[in-house]
Design brief:
The chain is an alpha/beta fold. It contains 12 helices and 16 strands.
Amino acid sequence: MTLLLSKNDVIKVLNMPDCMKVVEKAFSELASGTAVLPLRINITPPDGLALYMPAYLKEMGALACKVVTVYKNNPTKHNMPTTIGKVLLQNPETGDVICIMDGGYLTAVRTGAASGAATAYLARKDKGQVAGIFGAGVQAKMQLWGVACARELSRAYVYDKIDEAAAKFAKEMGEKLHLDVIKVDSPDKILEADIICAATSSPTPIFDGKKVKKGTHINGIGSHTPGARELDAEIIKSSKLIADSREACLKEAGDIMIPIKDGIISENHIWAELGEIIIGKKAGRTNPDEITLFKSNGLAIQDVATAKLVYDKALAAGIGVNAEI
């Protein structure tokens, strides 16, 4: 039998603190050599993009593949979302697909969880810090949730080009996190924050890296293609750069690839992968004045670890529908 889990089923059982724990374990496995992580496979049918993201985590006993499609004409032609995702979870002992679950909410939470884990290891540890969020979409919300789980915040700022979206974000996340979330009118105001998350769809830099203050931690998650970047070369050059995956950063991340191509940094500027920091192979923040930067591309190990967590919690709660396939 295969367990089928809808988006609502996933929402019922998945929370940020639990997701941060399993995502941290996944990064640890990657650094320890017990994870198998091929680069995502891209196929471009007419009018769309199909992505296949498999991974295996030996210690966690988790094997899965996420299938994501991006079809820009879906809303107008078919009354469907632009981006659709499903995760196929397998039994690593038999190979059988034991669960098929919606991947939209799962992807959003696991991305926020990666930034939460990075913040826990790289941001300054003093209490009462301020978070600054570029963007006001679903992923921006998950970023703030993850950061709020990693550090005791005094308040948060949010900036978005769409004023109404930022206002809605401030109200919703303020109530959810019991935190003072303030809509700001200038990108420069976000740079006053101690922890910054870039979660936009902008293909070009969204702030001046020269204006970032000492001691800031940055999570860069919005751009993940070779020709797009949210972060300018100045902030990349001046930061201690930590990657989710070196390979992914060097083959998929315009934030890193463009400054390398321009001769501003070399590949060696990547100080470490997040997993290396977690297992203590490399040092994270070594002084309070460092600017640390986590570059997230989104890895299948995050999906696999989170899918296993969702499956286990759904079984325990008796959620989902069993189907004979």
